[in-house]
Amino acid sequence: xxxxxxxxxxxxxxxxxxxxxxxxxxxxxxxxxxxxxxxxxxxxxxxxxxxxxxxxxxxxxxxxxxxxxxxxxxxxxxxxxxxxxxxxxxxxxxxxxxxxxxxxxxxxxxxxxxxxxxxxxxxxxxxxxxxxxxxxxx
Length: 138
Description:
Blueprint: H1 2-23, H2 35-53, H3 58-76, H4 82-86, H5 90-109, H6 115-133
Helix pairs in contact: 2-3, 2-6, 3-5, 3-6, 5-6
């Protein structure tokens, strides 16, 4: 049994691992030096938005907001030109925040019953980041 395993399974496993590592492109993270600031702003905005809506616990709302802040920072970090990196796009920040909030809320709860509310919390986090940091970073 040991020889059969070595001769049949291991070469296939080795081949799939080589193909998997070869064809997966590696890209460095796009987050910039302000990621902790964006996570903090997002967490605060998530808590406030959840309190206004009267939904979710403070911890879950903070996690959703922090994830939205990290996603907004990562997407903003992909901009190449200096002018675009300094001036934020409100539609992009709100959209990315909403998407990240919806996904994070679904992961936290394990169901999709309140996806719209999670998206609202994430959009609030993205909007808060845009308002508080637009044009203030070099």
